[in-house]
């Protein structure tokens, strides 16, 4: 992830107007972020994934600010959907594992930098 973040910053410095990073596979043990079907391991999975994700994203944002790119670079960190507000009680194939399904109506987004107007 760190190499991807460094490459993204270098591409912006070279004049690229948009760079997309896919940090889907962070952990070998937990290769996807799709945990609603296996709620038994979600806490172990997040303990494995989040420190790596946090370190790489923080380094990218700090690097952008230290190099004075923060006024022209806008960083979005998001997924393609959120999770249902209410925990369901499992399905036929996993009746003992409660979880949260895909929920396209809401999601979390981290936004950093950029000189855009936010009052519109």
What does this structure look like?
The protein has helices at 2-13, 42-66; strands spanning 74-78, 82-83, 102-103, 109-113. The strands form 2 sheets. Strands 1-4 form a two-stranded antiparallel ribbon. Strands 2-3 form a two-stranded antiparallel sheet. It has one domain (2-113). It is built from 2 helices and 4 strands, in the order ααββββ. It is of the alpha+beta class and 120 residues long.
Radius of gyration: 17 Å
The share of residues in extended strands comes to 5-15%
Shape: globular
State the order of secondary-structure elements, H for helix, E for strand.
HHEEEE
Mean pLDDT: 80
What is the structural class? alpha+beta
List segments where confidence is low: pLDDT < 50 over at least 5 consecutive residues: none
The main sheet comes to: 2 strands, antiparallel
Number of domains: 1
Contiguous helical run count = 2
Q: Would you kindly provide a brief summary of this structure?
A:
With 120 residues, the protein is α+β, with helices and mostly antiparallel strands.
């Amino acid at each position: 992830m760190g190499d991807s973040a460094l490459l993204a910053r270098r591409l912006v410095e070279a004049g690229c107007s948009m760079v997309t990073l896919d940090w889907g596979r962070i952990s070998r043990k937990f290769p996807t972020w799709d945990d609603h079907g296996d709620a038994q391991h979600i806490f172990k999975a997040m303990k494995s994934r989040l420190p790596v994700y946090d370190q790489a994203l923080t380094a990218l944002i700090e690097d952008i600010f230290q190099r004075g790119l923060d006024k022209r670079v806008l960083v979005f960190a998001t997924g393609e959907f959120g999770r249902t507000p209410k925990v369901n009680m499992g399905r036929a194939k996993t009746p003992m594992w409660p979880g949260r399904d895909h929920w396209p109506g809401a999601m979390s987004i981290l936004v950093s930098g950029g000189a855009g107007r936010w009052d519109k």
